[in-house]
Amino acid sequence: MPRKPQLICPAGSLPALKAAVDRGADAVYVGFKNATNARNFAGLNFTDQQLAEGIAYAHRHGREILIAINTYAQAGRVAEWRKSVDRAAEIGADAVILADFGLLSYAYQTHPQLRRHLSVQGSATNFAAINMAHECFGVSRAVLPRVLTLPQVEYVIKNTPVEIEVFGFGSLCVMAEGRCILSSYATGQSPNTHGVCSPAGFVRWEPEGQRMRTRLNDILIDQFEAGEPAGYPTLCKGRFEVEGDTYYALEEPTSLNTLSILPELIKIGVSAIKVEGRQRSPAYTAEVTATLRAAIDAAGDAHYSVKPAWQDALTKVSEGHQQTLGAYSRPWR
Amino acid sequence: MQLTLGPNLYFWPRQQVLDFYADVASWPVADVYLGEVVCSRRHEVKTADWLALGTDLAQAGKRVIYSTQALLESASDLMGLKRLVEAGGLIEVNDLGAVEIARKAGVRFVAGATLNIYNGPALDWFAAQGATRWVPPLEASRETVAAILAEKTCTIDTEVFAHGHLPLAFSARCFAARHYNLKKDDCQFKCLEHPDGMLVDTREGQHFLRINGIQTQSAACHSLYDDLPQLAAAGIGYLRISPQATHCRAVVDAFAARLANASASTDLAALHPQGLVNGYWHGKAGIATQVS
């Protein structure tokens, strides 16, 4: 019987961290207030003191804190990233989540006792890449980019000693994480370099009568007619014109939701299920954590089915109120 | 500095590919990258054909480098790569899994732009695995590349993506199939109808992106042509020109002429109706254009 996977929940603040612990997360992932963090948004994230308090709180409840240092160290400033790894070790984090191979090498040599997870930003989509990170840096867990089908995830699990963590819920990157620079093409800032995608500082909401236009660094990403809810202009989720058709050329605004396939994820041996959304509110973290906790606990039952109440709870917090199984089921395959 | 011809990112009919490379044999490029890097469903030209083309180009005096798929997902993707590595010759790796296969085989390689090398220690690590040349991330500026080179301790050649539509993102999903409401596994090879990809325009008619199967590119052409005179001083050894269906020879000739004589000047803008950009190299948004 496969082990029940850990539930890994996001926190961009101390109240969100506590909410995740209270509602049943096995581990909470967080980041520092600096460029080492792929959710480096104003008003988010943790000071050292807040983090120390959060770690104490989690440990008191028998849960873990994982620190994401998951942007790429920028040349000339490598010391900032190394210092963040040092701080994570000093402060008693249970693991660091890293993407940069230079930084993985540093962490392995300097803090061998500090567990290392390969971030989704590390963009390892196959067992060869993951086994290399295991052999070279002692990586014990890898987070898979959201590009693989269920059989492909299973194939990875069968061919690696590394624990595999997959995304279970949250906003969906349609591109392979770590291999998308659309954001810097439009704005100069990307997840790899600045820890941001379609950054808020470049967003303009431009009302015109009943119509709302959304721009990113002046580029028109979408426009919404009266009565249409206007969404944030994440640039891969805008409506564009291709050969005379105007549509969501790359992806609809939608959230990943794996409630219906949790038994399969458990069966193929996934070690951890991750919730996206460190940029979201403590209320989001609480709602999603409680729902996923209940669902994962029930998913081992032969008669498992998705409860309408769970579905309702997740729909309320989904992007564009739409959900998909993403690459796992590949309806577009 | 020497010119290289990057791997063809598009899907062309077999005869067009063969004709293109027959012509390339006489172009002023030192290195030619061959192979399919975007989509595992593209089989107009098979591995054996690529190897035969490589033999022909080597006889014409080109150094041939086999470039490998950028997003390795399936068992067959990994097997295909292994075959290429075992065939010998130089390879370009564009996926971490390919690094693992190359280093285990003891093969030297070019570390491609999607390996995310943003600092000296990372570059040193890839060099230790067998990289003899690297391509900085496309979003890296002149200053960033200089900072990485200043920070590294290894000996390695540097090649920059100097001209072409920028490959900006890779996905499991095929956006060409999506456009035609087809499933990826039954895509009817629609990419064959778009030798330079499909333009994605904003609703104000701004040319923004370009769909190339699972890859999303810039609509505009990134070009360091205007920056050529300063590039040699930046420690760059190789300049990559990315193949395009039209005017490719003219672009290569223009770069070669300018390398030979800094005062040579060709109006490349006239050959690129969706515009020229160079923002990344100047530390700005990639879509920006900075006039030197």
Automatic annotation (TrEMBL), chain A:
Keyword Metal-binding attached: yes
Gene Ontology MF term list: 4 iron, 4 sulfur cluster binding; metal ion binding
Signal peptide: none
UniProt pathway: Cofactor biosynthesis; ubiquinone biosynthesis
Coiled-coil residues: none
Keywords: 4Fe-4S, Iron, Iron-sulfur, Metal-binding, Ubiquinone biosynthesis
Record-listed [4Fe-4S] cluster binding positions: C173, C180, C197, C236
Cofactor dependency: [4Fe-4S] cluster
GO biological processes: ubiquinone biosynthetic process
Domain of life of the source: Bacteria
Subunit and interaction comment: Forms a heterodimer with UbiV.
Family, per entry: Belongs to the peptidase U32 family. UbiU subfamily.
Function field: Required for O(2)-independent ubiquinone (coenzyme Q) biosynthesis. Together with UbiV, is essential for the C6-hydroxylation reaction in the oxygen-independent ubiquinone biosynthesis pathway.
Designated name of the protein: Ubiquinone biosynthesis protein UbiU
Source organism (scientific name): Chitinilyticum piscinae
UniProtKB/TrEMBL annotation, chain B:
Record: residues binding [4Fe-4S] cluster: C39, C174, C187, C191
UniProt GO MF annotations: 4 iron, 4 sulfur cluster binding; metal ion binding
Example GO biological process: ubiquinone biosynthetic process
Keywords: 4Fe-4S, Iron, Iron-sulfur, Metal-binding, Ubiquinone biosynthesis
Requisite cofactors: [4Fe-4S] cluster
Listed pathway(s): Cofactor biosynthesis; ubiquinone biosynthesis
Pfam families the record matches: Peptidase_U32
InterPro entries to which the protein is assigned, alphabetical: Peptidase_U32, RNA/ubiquinone_mod_enzymes, UbiV
Function: Required for O(2)-independent ubiquinone (coenzyme Q) biosynthesis. Together with UbiU, is essential for the C6-hydroxylation reaction in the oxygen-independent ubiquinone biosynthesis pathway.
Membership in a protein family: Belongs to the peptidase U32 family. UbiV subfamily.
Quaternary organization: Forms a heterodimer with UbiU.
PANTHER family: PEPTIDASE U32 FAMILY, UBIQUINONE BIOSYNTHESIS PROTEIN UBIV
Name this protein carries in UniProt: Ubiquinone biosynthesis protein UbiV
Originating organism: Chitinilyticum piscinae
